[in-house]
Amino acid sequence: MALVSEFLGQLTLSYGGEVEPAFPTVVPAQDFDPDRDAARLDTAIKTKGVDEQTIIDILTRRNYNQRREIAFVYERLAKKDLMAALKGALSGSLESLMLGLMKSTTQFDASELKASMKGLGTDEETLIEIVCSRSNEELAEIKKVYRESTFDLLQ
User: Fold this and answer.
1) Would you say residue 92 has pLDDT above 50?
2) Half-sphere exposure for 142 (CA within 13 Å, toward CB)
3) 65-82 pLDDT tens trace
4) Dihedral over alpha carbons 31, 155, 56, 29 (to 10 degrees)
5) Which of 58, 85, 91, 108 has CB 3.0 to 4.6 Å from 103, enough for a Cys bridge?
6) Secondary structure of 64-81 in HEC code, one letter for each residue
7) Which CATH number applies to 103-155: 1.10.220.10, 3.10.20.30, 3.40.50.2300, 3.40.640.10?
C-alpha cells in the first residue's frame, strides 16, 4: 500500500515530466525604469504598423506591480490609458494576452469567469479550472471584484 501511495505522489509531482516551481516564475526586473519603459511603449504603439515585439519584450518581462507602475507613468506621459492604447494598437490573441497581463490575478479570473458565462452556452472548462483551483479566500476576492467592478472586465 505504501508503494502505491509513493508512486501516486510521484505522478502528481512530475505531471508533464516537470515539477511545478514552488517560487514565482515572473520576478521583478532588476534594471526596471518605468519612465524608460513607458516611453518605449509609447514609441512602439505610435510606430507605423505597431512594434509588437517591443510591447511583448517589455510587458512579459515585468511583474504585475511593475506593469501597473509603467501604466501609471504611461498615462502621465501619453495622456492616455495604457490599456486603451494597447486595445487600439493590437488585435486578436496578442491583444487579449497583453490586456490580460495588465490585470491583477483576481481581475483576470473575474473577467474570464464573466467571459465563460457570456452568450449562448457556458465554457465549463474555464469555469471549472478557475473555481476548482482557487482557495476560498481567492474565490471570495474574485466574487467581490466580479460584483463590484464598474469597469469592463473584458477589456
Assistant:
1) yes
2) 20
3) 999 999 999 999 999 999
4) 20
5) 108
6) HHHHHHHHHHHHHHHCCC
7) 1.10.220.10
